[in-house]
Amino acid sequence: MARTVIAGNWKMNGLLAAIAEIEAVVAGLPGRHTDADILICPPATLITAAAQAAGGSSLSIGAQDVHAAESGAHTGDLSCAMLSEAGASHVIVGHSERRADHGETSADVAAKAEAAQGSGLIPIICVGETLDEREAGRTLDIIAAQLDTSIPDTAPGAPFIVAYEPVWAIGTGKVAGTEQIAEVHDFIRSRLTERFGAPGSTTPILYGGSMKPGNAADILAVAHVNGGLIGGASLKATDFLAIYDAAKAQS
Ligand code: PGA
Asked: Rounded to the nearest whole angstrom, what is the distance from the C-alpha of residue 232 to the centroid of ligand 1?
């Protein structure tokens, strides 16, 4: 069985005052008897403070991107070792906003994922189709190509996570229907198992895209949905904990 993972992606939101939300999540965890893993990926500037606030609790802290190189002339970028030292245990790679805003290719994403795993970080590798691609009936072809080229061949050697985030459902309030989610998650699970064997059957596959307290239970009940990657609704501790509670019902 894949572990259930509830992951928050704060994107470019949050100044130091937002650490209060991390503290509120930490304060809310005792007594919530769930087997799900819980993770928040704040902006890089807050990783250290977030990791300190989460210290000793089951809340993990992650980053939103990383450079594949160990060091060097890459102005503005951060290495795996830097993120680990700051307190991150996970890193999102290949989010559609990085692919669109920064021209990241799937080959870039695979290199980042491999570097992350090599330094002990757990990559959350994102895939997802655009609305045009879905309307053209190309969803599964796009997902297949992204999976094949964004997940490095070395992936089964260390833990990794896949997130399915239909681009048209991110930040739009448009949630994919449970049948649409089921079709893609089932496809991803088969693809992972075919390529990697047993490790592919236990890799968590998260859904992301306008997930919130009101729809989390339905989404998390879909076969092969092993958690969520949550943007907007992860910014408030009460909403994020409510989604975590919905995971409890599944685990
Ligand atoms: P959203 O973002 O929950 O705000 O739609 C999800 C994501 O992009 O990870």
From this structure: 6
In one-letter notation, the amino acid at residue 170 is: I
Ligand 1 mean position, distance from CA 10 (Å):
9
- From CA 124, how far away is CA 206, in angstroms rounded? 9
Q: Report the sign of the C-alpha dihedral through residues 16, 17, 18, 21, in that order.
A: positive
Task: Flag whether the pTM goes above 0.85.
Answer: yes
Rounded to an integer, what distance in angstroms lies between the CA atom of residue 51 and that of residue 220? 27
Looking at the DSSP bridge assignments, the partners of residue 129 are none
Q: Which of 5, 6, 10, 11 to mutate to test the pocket of ligand 1 (most atoms within 8 A of CB)?
A: 11
Span from the CA of 212 to the centroid of ligand 1 (angstroms): 10
Is the CB of residue 6 less than 8 Å from the CB of residue 230? yes
Predicted confidence pLDDT, tens digits, the chain (251 residues): 899 999 999 999 999 999 999 999 999 999 887 789 999 999 999 999 999 999 999 999 999 999 999 999 999 999 999 999 999 999 999 999 999 999 999 999 999 999 999 999 999 999 999 999 999 999 999 999 999 999 999 999 999 999 999 999 998 888 889 999 999 999 999 999 999 999 999 999 999 999 999 999 999 999 999 999 999 999 999 999 999 999 976 54
Residues contacting 31, CB < 8 A, separation 6+: none
